[in-house]
């Protein structure tokens, strides 16, 4: 019997809520610099808020979970591997290309508004999610480069492996990452292949295979322990002034904590102990759109705020932070309903007659 006994993908409210929280963390992270650069008063977002980038670590764990859950029962099939890759491309590329094109349009129409830092970036490489020495044009797209790498490896596993060998495959990948930590990285591709954040995807993948076997009592404690590890780790790093995005450190602290949180939430949802408000689910559903669009909102709001002369007092800082966060969520939600969902329906319809229908069923966002 394969490790995953239930081959029916479903919507996990807990995972969607966690995705929404991760997206909000990333928005807060970018608000830190916006407040510092454009505010004239004492910055309110500092310290632990500077570690909001850890939302990405949550995303990577969730992504691994989603991938092995979707792939359950679909292995040893080149056709299913192709459908898997096509579905992943449909989920991430149309919206990513839209917002990348928005950056390109700004470069052409208002180059001074985006600065000179974009001049060294390759437009083609950005669209293709090809690793570069710097961020792609849409800066948050760097995470999608890693996602694409994860998807390719998963597609290879789907095409050639028996399902019972998937945990061994993931273990071998994790071991390879351990050995690569001592290798000098000199090219963008090497940086992607050797990045220890791959452990986060692997952890999520193993969770997707084994979470239903976790004893209820153990699963119950995973959530508070994971939250404590996440918050405690962030507080410790903040106290030590370690705000750099060291990949090994964030994988060990935030990746492991996120994995425990995911297990805890899944076990609680399975026991019907997790019933989130529909607004939290809505933010989770829109999390990918929020993630891709929020820099436009934060940047525009910061420019307006900086010129408004309402950027000095503590209250004015609070208003800016709160209003921008709400606006980023609102714009992302609109993007989800008007751009992301229609694109998924249109392009997804082109694949309905291809492959196993289970592979087409939407479980969660990538």
Short description:
It contains 15 helices and no strands. The protein has 366 residues and is mostly helical. The radius of gyration is 20 Å and the shape is globular.
What does it look like?
- This protein starts with 12 loop residues before the first helix and ends in a 6-residue tail after the last helix.
- Helix content is 70%, strand content 0%.
- Helix 1 (13-38) packs across helix 12 (278-285) and helix 2 packs parallel to helix 6.
- It has one domain.
- By secondary structure, it is an all-alpha fold.
- The radius of gyration is 20 Å and the shape is globular.
- The protein has 15 helices and no strands.
The radius of gyration is 20 Å
Overall number of domains: 1
> Separation of termini?
27 Å
Order of helices and strands: HHHHHHHHHHHHHHH
Model regions low in confidence, pLDDT < 50 over at least 5 residues: 1-9, 362-366
Look at the structure and give the mean pLDDT: 91
Total count of strands: 0
Portion in helices: over 70%
Secondary structure class reads mainly alpha
Q: What shape does the CA trace take?
A: globular
List the keywords.
disordered C terminus; 366 residues; mainly alpha
Question: What is the element layout, followed by pairings?
Answer:
Layout lengths: L12 H26 L16 H17 L6 H32 L1 H4 L8 H6 L13 H19 L5 H15 L7 H7 L3 H13 L5 H25 L6 H24 L7 H8 L1 H21 L6 H36 L7 H4 L6
Helix pairs in contact: 1-2, 1-11, 1-12, 1-13, 1-14, 2-6, 2-9, 2-11, 3-6, 3-13, 3-14, 7-9, 9-11, 10-11, 13-14
């Amino acid at each position: 019997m394969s490790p995953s006994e239930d081959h029916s993908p479903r919507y996990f409210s807990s995972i969607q809520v966690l995705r929404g929280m991760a997206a909000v963390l990333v928005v807060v992270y970018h608000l830190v610099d916006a407040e510092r650069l454009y505010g004239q008063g004492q910055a309110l977002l500092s310290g632990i808020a500077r570690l909001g980038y850890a939302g990405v670590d949550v995303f990577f764990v969730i992504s691994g979970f989603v991938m092995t859950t979707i792939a359950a029962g679909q292995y040893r099939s080149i056709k299913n591997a192709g459908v898997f890759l096509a579905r992943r491309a449909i989920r991430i590329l149309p919206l990513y290309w839209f917002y990348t094109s928005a950056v390109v349009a700004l470069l052409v129409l208002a180059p001074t508004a985006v600065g000179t830092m974009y001049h060294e970036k390759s437009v083609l490489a950005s669209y293709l999610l090809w690793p570069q020495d710097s961020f792609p044009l849409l800066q948050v797209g760097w995470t999608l480069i890693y996602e694409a790498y994860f998807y390719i490896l998963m597609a290879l596993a789907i095409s050639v492996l028996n399902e019972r060998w998937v945990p061994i495959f993931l273990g071998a990948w994790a071991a390879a990452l351990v050995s690569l930590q001592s290798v000098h990285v000199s090219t963008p591709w090497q940086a992607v292949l050797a990045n220890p954040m791959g452990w986060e995807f692997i952890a999520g993948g193993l969770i997707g295979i084994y979470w239903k076997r976790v004893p209820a009592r153990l699963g119950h404690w995973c959530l508070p322990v994971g939250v404590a590890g996440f918050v405690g780790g962030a507080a410790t790093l903040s106290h030590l002034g370690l705000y750099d995005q060291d990949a090994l450190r964030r994988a060990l602290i935030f990746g492991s904590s996120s994995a425990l949180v995911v297990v805890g939430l899944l076990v609680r949802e399975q026991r019907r102990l997790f019933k989130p408000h529909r607004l939290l689910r809505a933010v989770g559903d829109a999390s990918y759109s929020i993630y891709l669009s929020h820099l436009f909102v934060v940047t525009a709001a910061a420019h307006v705020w900086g010129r408004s002369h309402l950027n000095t007092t503590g209250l004015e800082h609070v208003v800016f932070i709160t209003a921008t966060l709400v606006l980023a969520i609102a714009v992302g939600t609109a993007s989800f309903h008007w751009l992301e969902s229609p694109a998924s329906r249109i392009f997804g319809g082109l694949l309905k007659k291809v492959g196993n229908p289970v592979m087409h069923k939407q479980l969660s966002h990538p």
